[in-house]
Amino acid sequence: MYVAVKGGERAIANAHAWLAEERRGDPAEPLLSVAQIREQMALAVNRVMAEGSLYDPDLAALAIRQARGDLIEAVFLIRAYRTTLPRLGSSVPVDTGAMAVDRRVSATFKDLPGGQVLGPTFDYTHRLLDFAEAAAMDPAPLGTPGPARVPHVTAILDRDGLIEPVAPDDTPAPDLTREPLELPASRALRLQALARGDEGFLLSLAYSTQRGYGRTHAFVGELRIGRVPVEMEIPELGFAIQIGEIELSECETVNQFKGSRTEPAQFTRGYGLVLGQSERKAIAVSLVDRALRWQELGEDDSGAPAQDAEFVLSHCDNIQATGFLEHIKLPHYVDFQAELELVRRLRQEANEAAS
C-alpha cells in the first residue's frame, strides 16, 4: 500500500493492536493453525501462491491467517517476502507430460490414452450446504491419483497436422518478478503476467471471449492437475538434478482457425499454466492467451478488451490495482481544496454571466 502518512503514530499503533485482536477472534476458540489452513483451505493457499509468484504452501497459509482471510492482502505479503529472497539459479523447464496427475479431463476426446481422471473436483457435486461439515465429519476419500505419465491430448491432433505446431524457443523467459512489465510483451511474458494475475479479473475477461468479445470458440483439449518434479542444472555436475516437486494446473484449449494465405485450416492453441490446484484460473488464462494472439495469427482486431494486451496486462495485477485504488483513502487535502476553489470560481463566473 501507499505509505504517506507521517503523523498519528499512536493512532496507528492502536490500530495495529486492534487488528491483532480482530485477527485472533474469540480467545475461547482454538487458534487456527497454519497446518490447518494449508491442509483444509488448499484452494485459497494455491491462489495465494499463484498470484504471489512463490510456491510455498506453509508461507501462503501463514499469509492467509495474518491477512484474516483477505487473499489479496495475503498475496501482497507473499510478494513482499519474495523480494527478500536471493536468486540461486533457474530450474529446467518442467515436463508436464511426466505429471503424476490427480485430475485430467478432455472435452475433445472421450477415449484418450491414459484415460479420463475425474479427481477431486466440485464439478459433479450438488451446490448444497453440507451441514455434516459443521459437525466436523470427515469426508470420504476422493480416489487415487492417475497414472505416472500420460501424453498430452493435443499430440493426437498434432500427429495429423490438425493443430498449429509448437515452435521451439530457447530464448530465456523474462522475469516479471524482478523486471517491470514492458509493452509490447512476448507471449512468454504475457503468460507469466496472466499466471500471477487476479483470478476474478481473468475470469471475467475469459467469459467475455465466450460471449463473442474476441471471437474465440474454444474446446478444452485437456485440463490436468498434478505434481511435477523440478530440476536444476548444476554446472559443476554437468547435468540436472531434482530439487523438489510442485503442483500445477495446466489447460490447453483447442480453438478454431480458418487458415490464411500461407497456413491451411487448422486448430490453434490457448495455454494456461498456474501454480497449485487452480483449474478455473488455468482455463481463464488459456482463453485470454488465445484472444491475445489475434495479431500473430493474422486475425482482425475486434476491439474486444481481451484482445488488448496493454489493457489486459496493465490491469490484471491485483496488487498494483489495490495499491492504486486504496491510496485514495489517504489525505488529499491540498488537492481537494484546489478542486473546491476551482468549482466555486466556475460557479461564480456562471452566476455573474447569467445576471
From TrEMBL:
Pfam families: PhnI
Keywords: Lyase
Source domain of life: Bacteria
InterPro entries recorded: PhnI
One biological process term in Gene Ontology: organic phosphonate metabolic process
Alphabetized GO MF terms: lyase activity
Name of the protein described by the UniProt record: Carbon-phosphorus lyase complex subunit PhnI
Species this chain originates from: Paracoccus hibiscisoli
Organism placement in taxonomy: Bacteria, Pseudomonadati, Pseudomonadota, Alphaproteobacteria, Rhodobacterales
